[in-house]
Amino acid sequence: MIELKNIYKSYHTKNDKITALKNINLRINKNEIFGIIGLSGAGKSTLIRTINGLEKIDQGTILVDKINITNLNKKDLLKERKNIGMIFQHFDLLNSRTVYRNVAFPLEISKVDKKIIAERVNELLDLVGLADKRDTYPSQLSGGQKQRVAIARALANNPKLLLCDEATSALDPETTKSILALLKKLQQTLDLTIIMITHQMEVVKEICDRVAVINNGEIVELGNIEEIFFNPKSKVTQGFINSIHSNDIKDITIPNKENSKLIKLTFIGESSKKPIISSLIKNNNVEINIISGNIDKLTSTNIGNLIIQISGNSNEIKNSINYLNAEGIKWEVINNDKSI
Ligand SMILES: Nc1ncnc2c1ncn2[C@@H]1O[C@H](COP(=O)(O)OP(=O)(O)OP(=O)(O)O)[C@@H](O)[C@H]1O
Ligand SMILES: [Mg+2]
Prior knowledge:
This protein is α/β, with parallel strands linked by helices. It has 11 helices and 14 strands. The protein has helices spanning 44-51, 74-81, 99-109, 114-127, 143-154, 173-190, 201-207, 225-230, 235-243, 276-284, 314-327, and strands spanning 2-12, 17-28, 33-37, 59-64, 67-68, 84-88, 161-165, 193-198, 210-215, 218-224, 260-268, 287-297, 302-311, 330-333. The strands form 3 sheets. Strands 6-7-8-3-9-10 form a 6-stranded mixed β-sheet, with helices on both faces. A 4-stranded antiparallel β-sheet has the order 2-1-4-5, covered by helices on one side. A 4-stranded antiparallel β-sheet has the order 12-13-11-14. The site of adenosine-5'-triphosphate (ATP) has 13 residues, from β2 and α1.
């Protein structure tokens, strides 16, 4: 559905040239929810704005449904943009217009008949659960309600693609969940393709099918959400995943034990249901302290992380590691002495 090939983009300021995107190559499939995660300044907004032609690129090709966005003249670009909805962190509603008139706005610009506008707006407000707020002004709405209005407005022209730039970053965790659930529902019922820009791994984890990690204008990692969570390769990705885990062992007092190792275990899918810890203790004569644990519920599977302190003689520990390998459990020694 969307193909970005070899994209370069820089900004020129008075004394400086900032390269915001470097050699970006991405293919986003129809009907998927694709996440793009990165730190502040990584180039996320620049990237998403190139897809609807809000940002001109220096080099490369952008195909949206086989149409080359980079070659369009102004008129054709405006026409094409109607097929691409967009929502933002701060909602960007028109404060002097009611909820109804905000959603009607893009249709008024397209000179749609008033009666059809009324039908469409009411349908959209039903869809986002705001039928009772149609005559309310944005200033009287909560953040979550404002984002629902913005979503309804973005969908007014029936786009097949929805771009979301930090759509939940200004919302509390509970409201974030409800907006993400709404986006997921809309993706399924309206056959939408959604691109989610975010700096929050929680958002990616909650609804994305695939994710690209962007750092300093470059894609440093890309994959299915379970691959990324199970086996994050880049430091940036590892940082994002650790940020949502409570297993920061700096804050935990770890018993001082001789002949012990601190090990992080990662389980995926079915392996999370096996009695690994009791088998380790029974079969290998080791002692185990559970230091911390958590489960990431992803769209497709669950990934569990457990930090344990394992004590025993070197043979017992080696046997334990062999057992983990045989069971397909990923392990990593996390204390200073990394040898086994
Ligand atoms: N209009 C502009 N003029 C000059 N530099 C810009 C402009 N817009 C963005 N930049 C620079 O380009 C780089 C990428 O910015 P961008 O806004 O795409 O990052 P981002 O990942 O969206 O960050 P954030 O999470 O803070 O929104 C940054 O170094 C930024 O300072
Ligand atoms: Mg941004």
